[in-house]
Design a protein that fits this description.
By secondary structure, the protein is of the alpha/beta class. 32% of the residues lie in helices and 30% in strands. It contains eight helices and 13 strands. The chain has a seven-stranded mixed beta sheet, with helices on both faces. A four-stranded antiparallel beta sheet has the order 2-3-1-4, with helices on one face. The longest helix has 24 residues. The N and C termini lie close together (6 Å).
């Protein structure tokens, strides 16, 4: 599904109560806005309501500041928080990577062809290998080597780039280093990681070869927000593919890489298109 570049996006959430959908749709009608897409969800367990709406103002001279002020007054009694995103907004992003290029290359291709609405401000790596690819896209490349002894200093360099570029999202496109607890806390809800879905059964080196040895019949990938627990953050996107005895370890690796890049791209798109609602340790993800 292609994002409507001419539409404004409004996302909102509040405690569950009567009239939550109406306060949004009714206000948009009153304000002369045509709804082009809408998703909502009421979580019966957490008692939280969330809604995402794409709309197009039908009157000239639409003023987002005035719109936000009026909606704040309208929704105040619902204890509703909301965010308004202008048409065509491209979120500033920093990508982190090590030596493997399939996820990075896929993301850069989607950005270059206009399929992913982000502005890649920089790529950071602990290795120099992928600098030619990144430079070809005319994107700054930062090589920050890291060891156990220099981890704190290296993460300070990484954080400086994130701050200097104004990045609102960090994408770990197969960045093969564990971030410190402090860095995870700084990037909570603003950093997405990708890994194969063979975890936790096949940890460490050559997981697809381990899976082949056990006769695994499914391979997949998981994209999630990072947190203090390795590969256990709130999940945004997952994909799987059936494999068989006819798939050798190299085949599993190839299929796994394909799924990883698709899963990561989908997770990033959902985040930048404001389709993900993060509440406590769980996500609500509206379809694209």
């Amino acid at each position: 599904m292609s994002l409507n570049r001419d539409a404004w996006i409004m996302t909102a959430q509040c405690p569950s109560q009567l009239g939550t959908v109406d306060v949004v749709t009714g206000f948009l009608k009153q304000y002369g806005c045509y709804i082009t897409e809408q998703h909502s969800f009421d979580d019966k367990i957490s008692q939280r309501f969330c809604i995402r709406t794409e709309f197009q103002p039908q009157n000239s001279g639409f003023d987002p500041q005035e719109f936000s002020r009026c909606f704040s007054e309208k929704s105040h009694s619902f204890d509703m928080t909301f965010e308004l995103t202008e048409p065509g907004y491209r979120m500033p992003v920093v990508i982190m990577v090590s030596k493997t290029d399939h996820c990075l290359n896929d993301l850069l291709y989607r950005v270059r062809t206009g399929k992913l609405p982000v502005d890649v401000r920089a790529v950071i790596s602990n290795h120099p290998d992928l600098e030619p690819l990144v430079r070809w896209h005319d994107i700054p490349y930062y090589h920050f080597p890291v060891t156990a002894e220099t981890k704190a200093e290296q993460e300070s360099q990484v954080w400086q780039v994130i701050c200097d570029t104004g990045a609102e999202l960090v994408v770990l496109a197969r960045y093969m280093q564990v971030l410190s607890a402090e860095m995870c806390q700084r990037l909570a809800g603003k950093a997405i990681n990708i890994h194969h879905s063979l975890l936790p059964g096949f940890k460490g080196a050559m997981p697809y070869h381990q899976a082949y040895a056990k006769g695994v019949k499914l391979v997949g990938a998981t994209a999630h927000y990072i947190n203090d627990f390795l590969d256990e953050g709130p999940i945004i996107s997952q994909k799987v593919e059936v494999v068989s005895h006819a798939d050798y370890p190299e085949d599993l690796v190839d299929k796994g890489r394909d799924i990883e890049r698709l899963t990561l791209a989908n997770a990033v798109a959902c985040h930048v298109e404001k389709r993900v609602f993060l509440y406590q340790h769980k996500t609500v993800v509206f379809s694209r």
